[in-house]
Write a structure and sequence with these properties.
The N and C termini lie far apart (52 Å). Strands 3-2-1-4-5-6 form a six-stranded antiparallel sheet. The radius of gyration is 24 Å and the shape is globular. It folds into two domains: 212 residues, PmbA/TldD superfamily (PmbA/TldD fold, 2-Layer Sandwich), CATH 3.30.2290.10; 244 residues, no CATH class. The chain is 20% helix and 38% strand. It is α+β, with helices and mostly antiparallel strands. The chain contains nine helices and 20 strands. One of its GO terms (biological process) is proteolysis.
Length: 463
């Protein structure tokens, strides 16, 4: 009998009952996915998958502290459940004291849906989207464009149970759409992406129309040298930069002098003004359209996440409030080390901007560049959070408030923290899909930003 023949909450309860450790946490993740792929204006593949993974975290108290063992496996059968629990216990007994050890979370009310069946997705999620995509293929074919891309929808139901009585559950839908339009000779390319919870708010016709305009801009080609240019960053590019900034915002690392958020001479830069614009960067599990788990789900420990914090509330947090740094990410352990408040990171990120559209910002640009997206972003210097990467699928020249052509791609060197300091305008915030980090982080809402001197450090030969 496979584990999938039992309900997830039953698997969690049985694993907890089998535990002989001093403490035990069990996380069952029930996952289903549905996807579509297309190329050259025609669907190529589609599929639906189902899966379950089980993580057992055992804690063992000792004279020198509490040790922890973590074992995760997929497709666990009923006969393999007890060996999985024993493996976690053996790993804990063979490990030294865990640096991040804290008492397991208590006092959280049980989720009334803990015993319900997991939520699932299916091909039905594309019931309206697929016909609309077919219509977009026809329009693109008639207009001399070829559409490539994919749509993916995933539903993960997570069940968390602990020996201290926690019984929590969260259903997380995640949808992504990436659409690429190319000219028949492949010399011109334009990209658009969207994140969605259910594909009901995605319009393939509107995306195709947007890409048609961009391919039209690219008919005129202008070669530019490397240098600093006034640049309009669209929401997707802003998201990629600020997500990496969030991932680099460890309170402990900052307090220990290792990051851009470290204060010279000691401590952190919390309380320091990072932008003259009244920009607020925040996370909120209840943000409409970007909802995510309101509590910590940690399958392993790292610098800013601890398995001991599983079930801890993850409330709305302002990372930057009206231009001033207010919080850095901490666990209960790192908060105690640094004296900072406990601030776990939620799985979304929002930058509150102004009220003007990107088109309006273009109209007010005398001479500058308009980007499509960023790609292959890598860290160069953690002390300044200097990042490097490439532009992709269209860099456009703006002259006299109009897009007049496409220019070559560039490699850039920029720090998102320094960009916030230099930004002179933020447009209207909208939901967006990060191009670079979309496989790991999809729930973002960002405004376009105007940077007067974006550093295009060299010319790239990419399309």
């Amino acid at each position: 009998m496979s584990a999938r023949s039992n309900k997830p909450h039953e698997i969690v309860e049985r694993a907890l009952a089998l535990s002989r450790a001093d403490g035990c946490l069990v996380i069952a993740d029930e996952t289903s996915t549905a996807n579509l792929r297309w190329a050259g204006n025609a669907l190529t593949t589609n599929g639906v998958t189902r899966g379950r993974s089980l993580t057992v975290i055992a804690t063992v108290d000792g004279q020198q502290g509490t040790a922890c063992g973590v074992v995760s496996r997929s497709a666990v059968t009923a006969d393999e459940l007890e060996p999985l629990v024993r493996a976690a216990e053996d790993a804990a007994r063979g490990a030294g004291p865990a640096e991040d050890a804290r008492p397991l979370v208590t006092g959280v009310a049980a989720d009334p849906g803990f015993t319900d069946a997991p939520a699932e997705t299916s091909s039905a999620v594309f019931a309206d989207f697929a016909p609309a995509l077919g219509d977009a293929f026809a329009r693109a074919r008639a207009g001399g464009r070829e559409l490539y891309g994919f749509a993916n929808h995933e539903m993960v139901s997570t069940y968390l149970g602990t020996s201290t009585g926690l019984r929590l559950r969260h259903d997380q839908p995640t949808g992504t759409l990436e659409l690429n339009a190319k000219s028949p000779d492949r010399t011109r390319s334009a990209w658009a992406g969207r994140s969605t919870r259910d594909f009901k708010d995605v319009d393939p016709a509107a995306l195709d129309a947007e890409l048609a305009v961009r391919l039209g801009w690219a008919k005129r080609r202008v070669e530019l040298h490397a240098g600093r240019y006034e640049t309009l960053l669209p929401p997707t590019a802003v998201a990629d930069l600020l997500i990496y900034q969030l991932w680099s915002a460890s309170g402990r690392d900052a307090a220990e002098g290792r990051t851009v958020f470290s204060r010279p001479g000691g401590g952190t830069r919390i309380g320091e003004r990072l932008s003259e614009l009244p920009l607020t960067l925040r996370s909120d599990p209840d943000e409409p359209g970007l909802e995510c788990a309101p509590f910590v789900i940690a399958h392993s420990s790292n610098g800013d996440r601890s398995v001991f914090d599983n079930g801890l509330a993850a409330p709305a947090t302002d990372w930057i409030e009206r231009g001033t740094l207010r919080n850095l990410t901490t666990t209960r352990h790192s908060a105690a080390l640094t004296g900072l408040p406990v601030t776990p990171a939620a799985d979304n990120l929002i930058l509150d901007g102004g009220d003007r559209s990107l088109d309006q910002m273009v109209a007010d640009t005398e001479h500058g560049l308009l980007l499509t997206c960023l790609w292959y972003i890598r860290e160069v210097d953690p002390a300044t959070l200097l990042l490097t990467g490439l532009t992709r699928d269209g860099v456009y020249l703006v002259e006299g408030g109009e897009v007049t052509g496409q220019v070559n791609n560039f490699r850039f060197n920029e720090s998102p923290v320094d960009l916030l300091r230099r930004t002179t305008e933020a447009g209207r915030t909208e939901k967006t899909l990060p191009r670079e980090w979309g496989d790991w982080f999809t729930r973002a809402a960002m405004p376009p930003l105007r940077v007067p001197d974006f550093n295009m450090s060299s010319v790239s030969q990419g399309v």
